[in-house]
Amino acid sequence: MNKLKAGLLTTGIGAVLLCSGAITETIRSDQLHSPTKSLMWQDYSQELRDKLTRSWSAGLEVIRKVMGEDEDKENLSEWKLYYDLEHAKHLIPRREHSSFSQVYYGDARRSLLENGDFMPALLLDPDHSKAIQFWEKHDGTYAIITMEKRLDEDGKRKWLETGAQIINKP
């Protein structure tokens, strides 16, 4: 009986070690290789690309009217438009990815984005310290969320939401 218990115990320990090795390898491989690939712009249908382009162009006009382009305000013509976060994220220092993602997917977006709204776009300024997320809502208005990189109380650079509003189309 003791040999049977010892054999079962040894088999059990072996199984646990084998499983933990497989789990460790899975975790390690997931960290090294992205499991999915994001959609590229050319993967969308031409009809959808045209619809989004029209919506975002109108959104840019709304933003220009709201934010203006005089000397005291932003020169938005130098900002770059991205159709999703994954294609802009490489421009933001890695140590700021977490705070940027928290603001990008934060409370303002969750409260403003509704079923039927268009896909959000992201404007990023040339020095990558300010961003504007915007999209056309199902009722024709535009949601605009402004974000800015600032120093927090610990002296670390962190992205913060600086404003969220809904604007009527001109």
Give an overview in words.
With 170 residues, the protein is α+β, with helices and mostly antiparallel strands. Helix content is 39%, strand content 21%. It has four helices and five strands; from the N terminus they run H-H-E-H-H-E-E-E-E. It has a five-stranded antiparallel beta sheet. Strand 3 and strand 4 form a beta hairpin. The longest helix is centred in the first third of the chain and has 31 residues, at 2-32. It is globular and about 75 Å long. The termini are far apart. Residues 14-37 have low confidence and may be disordered.
Q: Return the structural class.
A: alpha+beta
Q: Mean pLDDT, nearest integer?
A: 77
Strand content: 15-25%
Strand order of the largest sheet: 1-2-3-4-5
Number of strands: 5
Order of helices and strands: HHEHHEEEE
Please tell me what the overall shape is. Answer: globular
Summed up, the helix count is 4
Concise account of the structure shown:
It contains four helices and five strands; from the N terminus they run ααβααββββ. It is of the alpha+beta class and 170 residues long.
Which characteristics define this entry?
alpha+beta, 4 helices, 5-stranded antiparallel beta sheet, 170 residues, 21% strand
Write the layout of secondary structure elements.
Elements: H1 2-32, H2 46-67, E1 80-82, H3 97-104, H4 107-112, E2 121-124, E3 130-136, E4 142-151, E5 157-167
Antiparallel strand pairs: 1-2, 2-3, 3-4, 4-5
